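hey can u run this one w/ nicotinamide-adenine-dinucleotide bound, need the structure tokens asap thx
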Amino acid sequence: METVSSIREFHNVLNGELVPASFRRKIDSINPANGKVWARVPGSTAEDAENAVAAAKQAFPKWARYSAMERAAFLRQIGDLIAQHGEELAMLETNDCGWVIRETSYGLIPTLTSIWYDAAGAASVASRGETIQLSPTSFGYTLREPLGVVVGILPWNAPLFTFTIKAAYALAAGNAVIIKPSEFASVSSLRYGELLNTILPPGIVNVVSGDREVGEALVSHREVNRVTLTGSGNTAKAIVRSTAQAPKPLTFELGGKSPNIVFADANLEKAVEGVTTNGIFTGNAGQICVGGSRILIQRPIFEEMISLMKEKMKEDLRLGDPLDPSTTMGPIANEVQYNKVRNFIEIGIHEGGTILTGGRSGEEALSEKDARFSNGYWVEPTLIQVQRNSLRICQEEIFGPVATVMSFDTEEEALEIANDTSFGLGAGVWTTNLACAQRMIKNLQSGNVWVNTYRRVGPELPFGGVKESGFGRDSILENTQEKTCVIEEG
Ligand code: NAD
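ok here u go:
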């Protein structure tokens, strides 16, 4: 049993102050590596949502009046501050989500700082319009203005990354921001919000943790001017319903069932890494929206690829203490998701899939026995061979270290299987044939296509989905509205 004193308490960040939730409701935060409560976060309600909106609304006009260059100066300072607090933030993310420290500290933190610097550089884009000559005596021009209060709703798999993508560009464009992290992983966002408030004027960034109750109150609020969600399709549908009475621009970054396609002429060494350790068997146990969860391999190289993939997984994947820098894969981030992933492995077996490697969970999935982690939410990296793409494990998002593997003969067949999904987030193509690559890029129904690489995202690249993977982009322009003005000679 944990003693009460060893459990850390975190607070909402409202109008520059650290405050508990109204009614002092709290939610336990569980470390998924050992199943123990390690922190408590506010369980906010509609009342807290109301306070957050009031704070953001009040702070907005002053922030919007700063020039783009002045706002950029704040954002650059934030980038520096995040780098200074990188170690602490990486630890919080790892403890709360199970994402291994080697990725949170060496990969995530530098990415966050680069997003802040990029947003600072982009700030001036938000103030650029067009001039349109209408006649010799009249012309029109467009003004870009901030929207007002932007609400960002976060998932549990990558809180700091999604927080940053949502807040940095919204702030650069002159908006005030409210972030609601997931009830399963709020700790890093609450601390991040606290740090940001050491630089920003009060009320410009507010963070309220809690479940769907506070989420619904925020998104449906009449004074909220844009909502950006990273989460599941069901939540997106609920948000569409709850914003119907007070419509506002919506950006949805949703799930995926991304194909990762290997042609026989590919550089196999690169492809093996691209479909395994870089494609789906990542440091956060495949809980990535763009996880290449459907691996398609051209028949002549099928057997060779499978044995190379198994070898690579055996050599490179080590499940265990997420805070140990040599650990390459952490646990599933929470118990609900853990049960979901295990259930999908069972479904796959019932549907006739063949487990090529993995399949075990709990203590048995750990690379080495370790009593400290025996109650963690561990799932072995799992490859399931399938004959048909119509199976549930090929159609539904599992969101864990589980990929299906299927063979194909022709390019047309690969395309047909790849596009046979309601999602459209990421797709990988491994080939040395440029013409084939270009045809695939053109015909894959996906927001992102990577050729001879995978999961390449960054502030320089727009990111988002098509079909049921969402719409809109967390870009600077989506955080603005256009006003058209016409001036006639007086
Ligand atoms: P989720 O939809 O269950 O929850 C997301 C957030 O929405 C949480 O903060 C939750 O409290 C909130 N929420 C739930 N109901 C709400 C409502 N009615 N109104 C307002 N807010 C509400 O998603 P999750 O399980 O936390 O995250 C996993 C999902 O996120 C997966 O589908 C994954 O693919 C997706 N994801 C997508 C991307 C992307 O960039 N496309 C990135 C990461 C994760």
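The chain has 14 helices and 21 strands. anyway lmk if its weird
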